[in-house]
TrEMBL record:
Matches recorded under InterPro entries: Glyas_Bleomycin-R_OHBP_Dase, Glyas_Fos-R_dOase_dom, Glyoxalase_1_CS, VOC_core
UniProt-recorded name of the protein: Glyoxalase
Matches recorded under PROSITE patterns: GLYOXALASE_I_1 (PS00934), VOC (PS51819)
Organism, as annotated: Shimazuella alba
PANTHER family xref list: CATECHOL-2,3-DIOXYGENASE (PTHR43279:SF1)
Length: 284
């Protein structure tokens, strides 16, 4: 997990809104394999190692179902430590009969796709060895090929599934955005990421430290897609973890220099991308 620690900037925590907290908690514990770190009447923070918060689910007042064709969450992606871990998870999904929305070989990684009971998208994946990734002119080769599920299941057959491994991290987040020009300026000139893959004029994949992507950005819900209502199911916010205070202060100044809004809330800096996605700038 060398790409999800200092000196890189990476996604550390995601918060999503759900319609029914009890139903969602059962899903995230029994189907995905999280453990509870903190719980209140309207929200739960989830962990894999018992100390690090990775995902929060909350049930706001007057919540409404997920709106289609808007900006916001496409999926958040959980990166498990090994291919065998991914194989165990696939076997678990088959055993409990939970439907997948997709399963792909992306050359740099292998991935399973599904959704929570409210339609919030989830990817669970394992990376191939970075030494096998192919780079051309600072862009990494990625594709969407059929997953070799038989091989994956064989690799994971030795041990029983026992929830998400403690070494799981929030590998990346993929967002629906309304357009790409201002979005690219915000994430590259403002937040300091680099473009590592372009999917035509439809999507950008960006990272720090030569990862295949810490953030994906697409216009697949339509150019000009509106923001969802603030009380709808979907993404509430996500955290970017920066290596130190100096880097965070520089990032805040870069954001302000391009006209992006940065506010301070309870000691945290918060910014909002051009499509309304809310981002906390953290150092831990």
């Amino acid at each position: 997990m060398i790409f999800h620690c200092k000196p890189n900037t990476f996604v550390g925590h995601v918060k999503v809104k759900v319609e029914n907290l009890e139903r969602s908690l059962a899903f995230y514990q029994e189907v995905i394999g999280f453990k509870i770190l903190e719980q209140s009447k309207k929200s739960v923070t989830l962990t894999t190692d018992g100390k690090t918060s990775m995902l929060s689910i909350e049930q706001p007042e007057n919540i409404i179902p997920k709106r289609s064709r808007t900006t916001g969450l496409y999926h958040f992606a959980l990166l498990v430590p090994t291919r065998a871990d991914l194989g165990k998870i696939l076997k678990h999904f088959i055993q409990i009969g939970y439907p997948l929305q997709g399963a792909s070989d992306h050359l740099v990684s292998e991935a399973l796709y599904l959704a929570d009971p409210d339609g919030n998208g989830i990817e669970i994946y394992s990376d191939r060895d970075p030494s096998t990734w192919v780079w051309n002119n600072d862009e990494v080769e990625m594709a969407t090929l059929p997953l070799d599920a038989e091989s994956l299941l064989k690799e994971g057959q030795a041990d029983e599934w026992n929830g998400l491994p403690a070494g799981t991290v929030m590998g990346h987040i993929h967002l629906h955005v309304s357009e790409l020009e201002k979005t690219e300026q915000f994430y590259i000139k403002g937040l300091g990421f680099k473009v590592v893959f372009r999917y035509g004029n439809q999507a950008l994949f960006i990272s720090t430290g030569n990862y295949h992507h810490h953030i994906g950005l697409n216009t697949w819900n339509g150019v000009g897609a509106p923001k969802p209502p603030s009380n709808s199911v979907g993404l509430e916010s996500f955290h970017l973890i920066l290596p130190n205070e100096e880097k965070r202060n520089n990032t805040v100044n870069q954001l302000k220099s391009i006209g992006a809004s940065v506010t301070e809330e309870n000691g945290s800096f918060v910014t909002i991308d051009p499509s309304g996605n809310r981002i906390y700038l953290k150092t831990t």
